[in-house]
Prior knowledge:
Blueprint: H1 8-19, H2 21-41, E1 45-46, H3 59-71, E2 76-82, H4 89-103, E3 108-112, E4 118-119, E5 122-126, H5 127-133, H6 137-149, E6 164-171, H7 178-198, E7 205-210, H8 212-259, H9 265-275, H10 277-300, E8 303-304, H11 311-334, H12 339-366, H13 374-403, H14 418-432, H15 434-449, H16 470-481, E9 486-493, H17 502-520, E10 523-525, E11 531-533, E12 535-539, H18 541-547, H19 560-567, H20 571-578, H21 587-595, E13 603-604, E14 609-616, H22 622-640, E15 646-649, H23 651-685, H24 688-711, H25 723-747, H26 752-779, H27 787-818, H28 820-823
Parallel strand pairs: 1-8
Antiparallel strand pairs: 2-6, 2-7, 3-6, 4-5, 9-14, 9-15, 10-11, 12-14, 13-14
Amino acid sequence: MLEQPVSIVASRLVVLLVRLRVFAFLTGLALLGAAYWYLQAHPVYYNRAMESFFPEEDERLQFYRASRDWFHSEHTLLVVYRDPELWTSMGMERQQRLVRTLEKCPGVHRVLALATSPAPTNPMLTVADVLNKSRTDAEIADLRQRIRQTRLYCGVTIGPDLTTTALVVQLHQQLGTPEEAGAKLETIRRTARLLLQTENAAQIQGPYTAGTLLMIHDVYEYTAQDGRRLQFYSVLLMALVIAGAFIFPDMREVWRRYRLRQGGLLSGLRDVLISSRWLVLPFLVIYSALTWSEAIWGLLRGEMTMVGSAISSLVAVIGVTAVVHLGLHYRELRSRMNSQQALQQTLLYLGPAIFWVSMTTAGGFASLLVCQIKPVYDFGMIMMLATILVGVAILLFFPLTAMGWQSQPLYNQRWKSWTKLWLDRLLVLLDRRPWLSSSWLLLPGVTLALGMARLQPQTDFTNNFRPDTEVYQSYRFIEDSFGGAGQLELILSTPDLYSLSNDELRQYIGKLRRLEDRLMALEVVMESGQSVKGISKALSIPDFYDFLDNLPAVAGFLTPRARLFLLAGNVPAARKELGVGAVLVPANVWQRAQENPILLSFWNPVERKLRILLQARERLSAWAKRTLLAQLEDCCRQELGEETAFLLTGVYLMLAGLIESVLRDQAYTTVVSLGCMFLMALVAFRSWRLALIALVPTVLPVLAVVGTMGWINLPVNIATAMLASVAMGMTIDSSLLYLYRLREEQLAGQSFAGALLLTHRSTGAALLVASFALVFGFSVLTQSRFIPLVHFGLLAALALLGGVIGNLVLLPLLLRLTHRSAWRELASFPV
Length: 831
């Protein structure tokens, strides 16, 4: 199959590398030290902003930023708790203490709460003041009823049951670096929890703190904490498997020689200790590639995104696979030649294979560059870089680790591995039952792959967390007891409200009020089949207009234009509009209007844009969210008419669109990944047949795993959306190494049947060791608190297992189709 033997240039390069192995090893350590020193001085930080999920040119992101500028939006947190004693002096004092304490926290601009808000029965006093002055239960009941009917409060600071209350914590626009912002958010959550715990009120349920910034912070914290913990156990499990492949055979040989009195126990233990270098090499390669790629990425970008936590696992896949194949091939040659010759032969024949494996894997990751999601795009770039650097690390560290300081004589091991015996029998079985074996693989694989048509995105971002996490429990409590936790904004184009007459303004405010009522009446069906309101709260200018009706003595003559100017804090214009009636307005009303111009938070007079804040149900299926958003648009068109332009924005819409686009990009990245890997395999083998044969055992298991997600209704999240491209990049490594070893044996003079048998024994054994080590490594991810990492680890492990079956069963069967006559010779070989 190969046109010519190994070139003279390659031979000379290998000889030079073997001769300079000590220098190469020291160079690798020096580069590792330099990269480590650079990262200590210039650490790469995680960009924890929600905007980091989107490319800069994304229209949704640009409109979201524009709306924040128009209305000077501040990020908010909700601190929600249930207090049966809320409508007592003790309950109100407790909430006031909580407000004062939270306002002292760094990063907090102000805190809005029911106890400190103007009472609808007497806006000159707070709710707490009115309640403390109430002398009868009837007065308290009247206050509760008025608050229930006040749209400005119900669903904002008080829940429908009138015992669940929320504090709206408004944050400063600038919270500092990501680490500083995270520390401030944690301080707010911890402060609220500790204060209510010190109240010794057993009946209080909560507090539950939620908000977009806090949710994204928790994502990064969970992935960072889990990454450190899981990395340790992953390394431990992989080390055990690698030790079983490299160290245990030497221990068994030492014990055999000791029992036969052919060698001393101490000298044998020394040999075992030396063989432990195979345990160190994979992790030296992995750590070096990770450190180098992180340092280079820091020079280029200086920041990482959320999916950066999965990079170490995938680099381990590439590094362990290459090192195990090289190491086992080298050890196999050591039984026939000295260490220098074995090293040269290993580098000569597996070096090109490792090179093309790296290029093909990098091509698979390059397919992610077509994705519109910024973290996925960055992930593809980083993994391309890390894949290439794994090859560099192997080139620098493998020669000295394998051969040592000086050449050693051949090492004859008499025990035949049970793995090779099992692989021989498997090949015989495939020879005797080819159609039955292929049917058992292809029919279930194709059936499972058809489930890809049923894939649905995971649009409920809270389902990315385990039920026992604080963020999940917070959102569940808020959604069940208070209202929707999703933040959505409806942006309308408006006329110049200042220029409208009183009648025109009254009609326009009435139209907005009817729109709010329609929006809050929308219903959607949850996964349980229960019909619930999709929008639990709509808040805008009409709610503040209506609240002014509570002003004593002056509400009757406050015209719509006077109310507009009063809400805008424009006291001179409001006085002019009222004329002589302005003298009847209390001075503290004018003062409060100037101190807190509410209107500008909902209407921008320059851009003539108005916003309606919506609290939407977060815990909805993808279908329910699409239905809700479609109902919102239909409702706006019906109420506003075709002449009024409107757009939806907000974190709720952006996160829903994010996962939708991830699902669309999955198809593109899969096709591009297949194309890249086919081209690389075509260049490597110079045969379109072999290129296609290499793809089949790679693609089918991955498509079967992804299709299984559709059959079992497992939604696609931001991590599993990358699974197809990433898993194919992982599993094709073994296919390429298998085919390369087959060509090597044929070049050495073996017939096809003999080459296939030797390849199945040697490369198949290395494939099993590497794959099981990685399956154990990925399975540790199932213990993560971040569900996308759990799904990614589980599905990647299944894809690797499928790749093992594909390469050991399906790949030989495909080769049988292209070598029918030569395959018959297999029966004559002793097994």
